[in-house]
Every structure is written in C-alpha cells, then in structure tokens.
Design brief:
With 293 residues, the chain is an alpha+beta fold. The chain is 26% helix and 43% strand. Strand 1 (16-25) and strand 2 (30-49) form a beta hairpin. The chain is globular, with a radius of gyration of 22 Å.
C-alpha cells in the first residue's frame, strides 16, 4: 500500500512538454515572454520571477487574457493563475533590476530554473538595439566570460544580436545561470567619418534585405506559433499555404493566426495575397532558394 501511495503522485504529476522563454533587454527593463505547454490540462498555473515586474499579461492557448494574481515575495514575484482549464499558457511582463552598468559595460544576469519535469527547454536573450557582446580582452582581468553558459548559439535577427540555448530533458532542479556582458556601439563624432559609417550601414542593410532568408537561423528568434507557421510553409512544395488551412492545422482562432501572420509579414518573412474569402500566405524569396537547390 505504501508503494502504491508513493507511485500515484508520480503518475499524476504535471509535466512540461515545452518551456520557451524570450527575453528582450531594453534600456530600463527586460521584456520577457514565457510559453509553457503542459502534458495535461491544468487548473492552476504559475511562474516565479526573481525580480520586480510590471505590465503583466497572461494568455491561454486561444489568446484570451486571463485574470491572474501577483504575489510579491521578498526576493521576487509570483504570477499565479487559478481556476483555469488549459494546456498552454503565455506569461508576458517587464522585469527590472536585471542589468547592472559597470562603466561602459552592461551586465545582464538571471537564473532560469527547471522546477517541473520538462521535455524541452529553450531560451533566447536579445540584446538592446545597437548593442554587441563584449570582447574577451576587456574581461580578462575579471576572469569572467563574455557570456555563459558558453554553449550558446549566437545570431542576429537583423535588428538585435541574440544568444540562444536549447536543452532536451534538462534535469529537474537545474538552473541556467545566464550572464551576458554587452556594450553599445559608439558612433564616431567626426562628420566625415559619421557619414562614411552611415553609408556603410545603409549598404549593409540593403545587402541584408536582398539576400535569401536563412530560415534555419531565423527560426530560433521566432515565437513558437510563428515557427509553426513558417514550418508549415517550408513543408509545402510551393512554400505557400492557404490561411484557412493554417488555421485548421494549428487549431487556433482566425484572429490569432491573422496576428501571427501579420507579425511575420512585418518582419519581411511572408507575404499575403487575397484569394476569394481567404489569403494565400507565401514565404518571401522562395524562388531564389529553389534555384540554389
């Protein structure tokens, strides 16, 4: 009987299929979006933030906003949602006091902990626009690394430099102590030199917009729903899908899918063409990619 009582809680324990976090560092705060997908429908969901927070919004899988409670702790804030019935949830908020300035160098630190059995964990931290990771030479005397954990993938979405981490079945209780040193790129004050830099940046922007989209690099910086839409388009032979079909396959509301596609369109990743009562969604520059293949 004792063995049975010990085994039952393990069977009924809530597990997380996927935990995805995107943190965008801004001037005075860090905007975080936390997507959690549970293995079962839950009636209670919460997320603990080791920092003061504001502008908290919580959404269910239908993008309906939930009424949740904030519980201030001595060292953080608990976002608690009770009397719910959902399998997916999204927490969005602004967190403060996570970046410390040391001269011209900024230091972002935050411990992301695995508090539930989790199948897949992903984390993306985006630096402020115009910022770059500090070179190792500037940190040699401190013994610190430009960023940690050191197995991060570095990339850029065209506006921000980002670092991403991905783990499969991380051990329960594991804490990812994220540390990133960054600094803003200082533009020269000389008018002539400044003009040269501006021309160079404009040419770089043109080249960036004209080259083919490396979707394997772009996908990590998208939200889970945006990745699903792009994956559906990539799986299509013509790199295009009827919007009505996307709604059906993703099992989301029409308005939710429309917002996702609008975000992708604003990033220059897809185009929308009106066909009858629906839209044809197409990946941009797919023809160039096909020629290269």
């Amino acid at each position: 009987m004792l063995l049975i009582l010990l085994f039952v809680p393990l069977v009924n324990a809530v597990q997380v299929n996927e935990l995805g976090i995107v943190a965008e560092i801004n001037e005075d705060y860090v905007h975080m979006a936390v997507d959690i997908e549970y293995n079962i429908t839950v009636e209670r969901a919460d997320y603990f933030v080791l920092a003061p927070v504001t502008d908290v919004h919580v959404y269910d899988e239908n993008n309906s906003e939930l009424v949740c409670e904030l519980k201030e702790r001595e060292i953080g804030t608990l976002i608690l949602c009770e009397d719910v019935s959902l399998q997916k949830i999204r927490f969005e908020f602004n967190a403060y006091e996570l970046v410390k300035k040391q001269g011209t160098i900024n230091h972002f630190t935050y411990p992301y902990s695995i508090t539930n059995p989790t199948e897949k964990f992903s984390l993306i931290v985006k630096l402020p626009i115009g910022a770059m990771i500090v070179e190792q030479g500037k940190l040699n005397q401190s013994g610190m690394k430009p960023y940690s954990p050191e197995d991060a993938t570095r990339g850029s979405d065209g506006r921000r430099i980002y670092l991403s981490w991905s783990k499969t079945k991380p051990r329960l209780g594991t804490t990812f102590d994220v540390s990133i040193f960054f600094e803003r790129v200082e533009l020269p004050t000389s008018p002539t030199t400044l003009l040269v830099v501006i021309v160079f940046l404009l040419l770089a922007a043109v080249l960036f917009l004209s080259r083919k989209k490396p979707y394997d690099v772009i996908l990590p910086v998208l939200t889970k729903e945006e990745r699903e839409v792009v994956s559906l388009l990539l799986a299509s032979g013509k790199r295009q899908v009827n919007q009505r079909e996307i709604v059906k396959k993703m099992d989301l509301s029409k308005s939710k899918v429309s917002r996702i596609i609008q975000n992708l369109e604003q990033r220059g990743l897809v185009s929308r063409t009106r066909v009858g009562r629906t839209n044809k969604i197409q990946l941009l520059e797919h023809k160039a990619r096909k020629k290269e293949e």
